[in-house]
Design brief:
heterodimer; A: mainly beta; four-stranded antiparallel sheet; 11 strands; B: mainly beta; about 50% strand; globular
Chain lengths: ~110, ~110
């Protein structure tokens, strides 16, 4: 089985722009979670999607949003980018909502200049 | 809220040395505890987990015991190899939101010949 894939792997954006990141879960997995990894804050939970609905949310501003499609693929959007949004964004998939067994993708490295 | 504290790195050891990475947690409920590993250029991988007090998780020679009385989940390995060089993350999930992981800041391990 193919693992979790994330596209693009690297991205450079300018302050004020918006960005969309994509995550394709492992085949058969229906839950997708997103995390932000920065040197200062470490790994922080953004949100979880299951059956096209957001099920859990972390403590991030409304500029961070996401969605999930009927094929379980998920996108994450960040609007009005700030320098502090530079981070590695990780996606994790699991078979069902609330599953502790999560499989992580390689991440998308976002740099905001 | 929930939090995880793990020892600062980097930790530098010679091959075949004994490894301990300390991890303590704060949680209101009865969390499950995890160790994840991130090898250079790769995504996070689950190393081991424990779901209740006194459980011992083990994998690839690594072990950690869920100690409720000391709220700890220290990672140990009797004899490290160069291939163990990576960043190790301690994490917990609350029983109510199992897929939402709270991570420690990570400990970088460097093993030399």
């Amino acid at each position: 089985k193919a693992g979790v894939t994330q596209t693009p792997r690297y991205l450079i954006k300018t302050r004020g722009q918006q960005v969309t990141l994509s995550c394709s879960p492992i085949s058969g997995h229906r839950s997708v979670s997103w995390y932000q990894q920065t040197p200062g804050q470490g790994l922080q939970f953004l949100f979880e999607y299951f059956s096209e609905t957001q099920r859990n949310k972390g403590n991030f501003p409304g500029r961070f949003s996401g969605r999930q499609f009927s094929n379980s693929r998920s996108e994450m959007n960040v609007s009005t980018l700030e320098l502090g949004d530079s981070a590695l964004y990780l996606c994790a998939s699991s078979q069902r909502q609330g599953s502790e067994k999560q499989y992580f993708g390689p991440g998308t490295r976002l740099t905001v200049t | 809220g929930d939090s995880v504290t793990q020892m600062e790195g980097p930790v530098t050891l010679s091959e075949e040395a004994f490894l301990t990475i300390n991890c303590t947690y704060t949680a209101t409920g009865y969390p499950s505890l995890f160790w994840y590993v991130q090898y250079p250029g790769e995504g996070l991988q689950l190393l081991l987990k424990a779901t209740k007090a006194d459980d011992k998780g083990s994998n690839k020679g690594f072990e950690a015991t869920y100690r409720k009385e000391t709220t700890s989940f220290h990672l140990e390995k009797g004899s490290v190899q160069v291939s163990d060089s990576a960043v190790y993350f301690c994490a917990l999930s609350d029983s109510g939101t199992a897929s939402k992981l709270t991570f420690g800041t990570g400990t970088r391990l460097q093993v030399t010949l």
